[in-house]
Amino acid sequence: MKFNAKFAAALSALALAASAAAAEQVKVGMITTLSGGGAGLGIDVRDGFLLALKQAGASDVEMIIEDDQRKPDVAVQLSDKMIQSDKVDIMTGIIWSNLAMAVAPGAVKQGKFYLSPNAGPSALAGKGCDKNYFNVAWQNDNLHEAAGAYANSAGYEKSFILAPNYPAGKDALTGYKRFFEGDYAGEVYTKLGQTDYAAEIAQIRASGADSVFFFLPGGMGIAFMKQYAQSGVDIPLIGPAFSFDQGILQAVGDAALGVKNTSQWSKDIDNETNKAFVASFQEEYGRLPSLYASQGFDTANLMLSALKVAQPSDADAFRAALETADFASTRGDFKFGPNHHPIQDIYVREVIKEGDVFTNKIVGVALEDHGDAYAAECKM
Amino acid sequence: MSLILLIEQVLNGLQLGVMLFLMAAGLTLVFGVMGLINLAHGSLYMVGAFACAAVAAATGSFWLGLAASLAAAAGAGALVEITVIRRLYRRDHLDQVLATFALILIFSESVRWLFGSFPLYLDTPPLLAGAVTLPGGIEYPLYRLAIIVAGLVVATGLFLLIGRTRLGVRIRAGESDREMIAALGVDIDRLYTAVFALGAALAGFAGAMVGAIQSVQVGMGEPVLILAFVVIVIGGVGSIKGALIGAILVGVTDTLGRFLLPIAFGAVMEPSAATAIGASLASMLIYILMALVLVFRPTGLFGAGA
User: Fold this and answer.
1) Among A22, A166, A211, B106, whose CB has the most other CB atoms within 10 angstroms?
2) Domain containing B77: what range?
C-alpha cells in the first residue's frame, strides 16, 4: 500500500512534468476565405479545424484566423504579418491554388510548417515540393483522375469534357484524360466565372457524347447543373466532388439527383472517426459537414497527433511525426506519399435525397490507395 | 454543325441579350438622367435574386418571390438614393465611383450576414420547367423562352413609359436641363428617387429571373455589371434604344463567339490548342466589339451627338 502510494505520487509528478512540457504554446496561423463568394469553403475548413481542437481540449494551441478575401495580395500581407509579428509556428487554411502558390513557398522557406487543408497545386507536389509543406486534402488532379477511371468502369466511350479556362481547369481536363481511355466528343474551355452555359449545353446536345465530364467549381457549377437539367439533355454527368458538395447541393436542388461524382470523403464512409465527426459537426454547427469541413478536421487532427510527439521548435522531430500521419482520419485509410501528399482511396458517390436534404452516397471505389503523378519529380 | 444548332445558339444569344438589357436599362437611365455612375447596380440585382429565393422558399411560390424581388430591389434602390446617392449628383464621377463601390461591399456583407455564405436554392416555377420543341425541331428550354418574352415586354413598356407618358417627358426633360424643370415646378428630388427605384426594380427583376437558372449567391451581380457597362457604352449612354440594341448585340456576339471560334480555330490547328485559343479569344470578343464601335462612333451607337 505504502509502495503504491509512493508509486502513484511519482507517477503523478511525472505526468505533471510531461504535461508541463506539452503545454508549450503553439501558434497556428490560419489564412482562409471568410468573405465574398467563396466564403462557404473557408468557413467549413475553419469550423472543421476548430471542432477538432475543441474535441481534443487543445488549450496549448493558439489560433490566429484571418480572412484573405480570395485575394493573393491580401493573403501575402497576412502571411507576412503572421510570420514576422505574430511569430506563428504552423500555417494552414488556404482554399485556392493561386493563393497557396503566393503564400506556402514563402512560409516554408522561412522555416514554418505549412499544412494545406485544400489547395494542392501540381507545382508544390513535384519539383517545387518542400520538406515542411504537407497537403492533407489531395493533389489537384486526383479527383479528376478518379472521374476518368470511373468513366472507364462505367463503360463510357465518348466523353464531352468541360472546364473553365484557367490553370486548375486545364489541370482538371489533364487529370481526366490521364485515366479515361475513350474518345472525346468535344473539349470546351469556358470563361472563368461564366454563369450562362446555354451555348455549351447546345453543343453537348449536338455532340453525340455518351458522358459529360465537367469541372466548374462554386457558382459556375450550380448554374451549369440547373441549366443542364432544364435543357432536356439526358447524357449522364460526371464531376469531381466540388460541384456536389454539401454546401452547394441544396442550391442545385433536383437537378443534381443521380449525378456521379468522385471524392476522397463522404459522410457515409463507414468508420468510427467519421461517424463521430459527422454527428458532432452537425450538433455544433447545425448543418451537415462538407468535404472541406472534413479536410479542416483531418488537418487539425494530423497536427495534434504530431504535437503529442514533438514541438515545431524541434523541426526534424515534428516533421517526422507529421510524416507518420498517426491520426484517425475521417477518410479511413490515409498516409503520406514521399512528396507529403496523400495516398488514399477515392470514391464514386451518387447524389441522393435524404428527407428534405440533398446529399451523397458512396456507390463504389474509383481508385484505391491513389497517390499523384508528380511524386517522382519531388526531391526533398 | 447543323442549322438547328446554329439557330438554337442565336436564341441563346438573344436570351442573354434580353437579360443584359434589363440590367443595362436601369444603369443607363440613372446615368443618362442623373449623370451618376452607379457601381452598386449589380448589388440591386443580387438583392432581387435573394428576395425572390427567400420568399419563394418561405411561400413555395416563385411568382410571389418575383413580386417580392421587385419590391425589395425598388425599396433598396429608393433607400440608397435618399440616404447616399442624393449627395453625389453634383460631385465628380470619381466620388460617385468610390461611394457606390463602398455600397457594393456593404450590400454584399449585409446579404451574407442575413442569408449566410452558402448559395440559396431557387428553382424555375413548375409552369415553365422543361424544354419545348419549336418549329423546325429545335428543342429549347421553356424558361429561357419566357425570359426572352418577359424582356421584350419590359422593353416595350419602357419605351412607352419614356416616350408616351408625363413621367417620361419629365425624365427626358430632367436629362437635358434639371434647373429648368425644377423651375417649372417638378419636384426633382422625388423624380430622381422614382427613376432610381425604377432602375433598381429592373435590376431586381433580372436578378430574380436569372437566379432560377444560375446561382443565388453573394457577389453574383459584379460580372453582370461589367457586361451591362459594355452594353451601355456600345449603345450610347442614356439611350434605352441603344441599351436594347447593344444588349442583343453583346448577347449574340458572346454566345456565337464562344460557339464558333473554337470550331474555326479547329480547322487550322490541333483540337486541344484550338479550344484553348478559341475560348480565350471568345472571352475578349465583346471588348473587341466595344472598341470597334467606339472607333467609328465615339459616343456609342445611339449616343447623344452621334
Assistant:
1) A211
2) 3-296
pLDDT reported for residue A1: 44
Number of domains in chain B: 1
The three-point CA angle A107-A45-A63 to 5° equals 55
Rounded CA gap, B162 and A341, in Å? 63
* Chain A residues near residue B15 by CB distance under 8 angstroms: 198
- Touching check for B108 and chain A: CB below 8 Å? yes
Q: Please indicate, yes or no, if residue B260 is contained in any of the structural domains.
A: yes
Return the residue in B50, B213, B220 with the most chain A beta carbons within 10 A, the one to mutate for interface testing: B213
Measure in Å the smallest separation between the Cα of A42 and chain B Cα atoms. 10
CB nearest A199 (choices: B121, B217, B258): B258
- The set of cell numbers assigned to B112 is 451574407
- B45: which 3 cell numbers? 440585382
Q: Are A344 and A367 in contact (CB under 8 A)?
A: no
Cβ contact, residue pair B12, A250, below 8 Å? no
Report the residue of chain B nearest A232, measured CA to CA: B131
In angstroms, the separation between the Cα of residue B153 and the nearest Cα of chain A is: 22
Residue B306 in domain: no
CA gap B31, B175 in Å, rounded:
9
**Which amino acid, one-letter code, is at B175?**
E
pLDDT at position B63: 95
- Residue B33's domain is classified under what CATH number? 1.10.3470
CATH code at A24-138+265-336: 3.40.50.2300
- Residue boundaries of the structural domains of chain A: 24-138+265-336, 141-263+345-377
Residue pLDDT tens, chain B, 306 long: 588 889 999 999 999 999 999 999 989 888 888 888 899 999 999 999 999 999 999 999 999 999 999 999 999 999 999 999 988 888 888 999 999 999 999 999 999 899 987 888 888 888 888 888 888 788 899 999 999 999 999 999 999 998 889 888 888 887 777 788 888 888 888 888 999 999 999 999 999 999 998 889 888 888 889 999 999 999 998 888 999 999 999 999 999 998 899 888 888 888 778 888 888 898 899 999 999 999 999 888 987 654
> How far B168 CA lies from chain A's nearest CA (Å)?
33
Query: Per the CATH hierarchy, to which homologous superfamily does domain A141-263+345-377 belong?
Result: Response regulator (3.40.50.2300)
| Residue where the block lists cell 447524357 | A235
CA distance A312 to A298: 18
